[in-house]
Amino acid sequence: MAKIVTFKGNHVKNTGIVRDSHVLLQVEEIGYLMQREALTVLNGNSSMAMMDVYSLIMSGNYGCTWEAFKVYLELKNLGYIISRHKVLWSDSSMKSRRPNDGLSNDGLSSLSGHLESLELRNETTHEGLQSEFSDSSINQDCRMLNHEITINDLKFDSLDNPNILASKNIINLNYGATNGLDFSMRVIKPMFDVFSPNSNFKKRNPGNPDFSLYISSDLPIDRVTIEDLNANNNGVPVTIATVDSGRVSFFNFNEVQLPILP
Amino acid sequence: MEPRWKYLKAKQFALENPISDVYRQMQCMPYLKSFFTPTAVVLEANSLQSELLNSCCIGRPFLIGPQASVSSNQSEEVLLYELGFEEAFFLSYELKCLQVWQKSNQEEILLNNDSMWQLMRLHKHGFSYFYLAYSHLRKKNWLVRTGLQYGVHFVAYRHHPSHVHAEYSVVVIPEWEREMQMNSWSHMQGIIRLCGNVAKTLLLLHIARTESDDQHPQCLESYSVKEMEVKRWLPEKHRMQNCETAIKS
């Protein structure tokens, strides 16, 4: 994640989440803004290169896979407003009540504790934001699990081993959003919540998303999974996205009843 | 997608001439006689029977000419019809207006529903779930034809194809053999693309069953069907609509 240090331009209106008056960016948001040359990210004394950010995404350790990133870019470039599934845009409504899902104030204090010292730089573009990179994610538990990944030397490409899959399930569950791959053992959840392009979007009161996005992999999704996704999403429809050969496609699966004809 | 009627009064005509009437007329006729082959069921039909078969899109006709006719009335044109297994079983099991005979050596044996089911199961993989899907739609009075030209299992029409374009391309997905019928996203992408090009909506019929024994047609009672429409969502098209809605609100 990255914390925005210098604010410029309008991207902040619909990108990044607000926690304790800081605006924090998820890794896919960092990737998107850097592609648009609207963001520089500082890590220690140097700024991060585009390839560094892509490597982080490809590692899959920050809750967003490369597939999910492609989907994110596709929609973001068309003006849609996207958040991770069930991650609040702003904690201002949180402060009046304690939520059970996703993020909590504990995460915030751990985040501050992990921020590394940084240098500020002036941005030449009008849209320029600057941010400090942090290797932690918002949830303290996730950071510990990141260590588990390296200690056990799990490789994300060896997906056949069921033990690896089981460990991945536990890791992914704690992120609150999964990386969208189809494993039978895990709790299947959408990856993103998507809002229509809207210049009046307010983080404090975003309303319900227009739909949630589940990212599917090799096999077309089965009926039971679709029904579960739709049933567990509080009335918000779920669209399925798939990435193949660099192309992103979106599908809606709707249960119907064909009419009985005369 | 709304039904696309082919001419101005087509919808009216369809309402006044429902398919269920055709089925009733067929049930009042004497039995049609047909013969089983490993790929099709073949029957002879006179002009009245042909008219009924044509009007509910069952079977494909081919003319054999009066010389080869086995009917006693030589002046009547006789058509041979080829029926698919699902069509033949539907006429026999549901409408009870067809008899299917098997020729062996010099004899002809009348097949009962059980024997017919088993023969058809033997010669066509997946016959049990294809038949379930076919009869599910037929019982709702939709006309169902082969979807071969469209890369799918069936196409479904609201009424005769001369009055209306097919609305649905149907793919049957049994839950116990899912990958056999839909084995990858590129497969599904191809089908949806083609459906779009021919202005049909993809309909998936998900079949579930509580018993795996499909030796007898009674197994159909343990099967259930769920209908699901699949549509592609195009973000480029929807963002302008949503923008306009957002600006108005």
UniProtKB/TrEMBL annotation, chain A:
GO biological process per UniProt: tRNA-type intron splice site recognition and cleavage
Source organism: Ceratopteris richardii (Triangle waterfern)
Name of the protein in question: tRNA-splicing endonuclease subunit Sen54 N-terminal domain-containing protein
One GO cellular component term: tRNA-intron endonuclease complex
From TrEMBL, chain B:
E.C. no: 4.6.1.16
GO BP, one annotated term: tRNA-type intron splice site recognition and cleavage
Reaction catalysis annotation: pretRNA = a 3'-half-tRNA molecule with a 5'-OH end + a 5'-half-tRNA molecule with a 2',3'-cyclic phosphate end + an intron with a 2',3'-cyclic phosphate and a 5'-hydroxyl terminus
Top-level taxon of origin: Eukaryota
Any one Gene Ontology molecular-function term assigned to this protein's record: nucleic acid binding
Start and end residues of each tRNA intron endonuclease catalytic domain: 131-210
Cross-referenced InterPro entries: tRNA_endonuc-like_dom_sf, tRNA_intron_Endo_cat-like_sf, tRNA_intron_Endonuc_cat-like, tRNA_splic
Gene3D superfamilies in the cross-refs: 3.40.1350.10
One of the record's GO cellular component terms: cytoplasm
Pfam families for the chain: tRNA_int_endo
Family designation: Belongs to the tRNA-intron endonuclease family.
Protein name as annotated: tRNA-intron lyase
Species, as recorded: Ceratopteris richardii (Triangle waterfern)
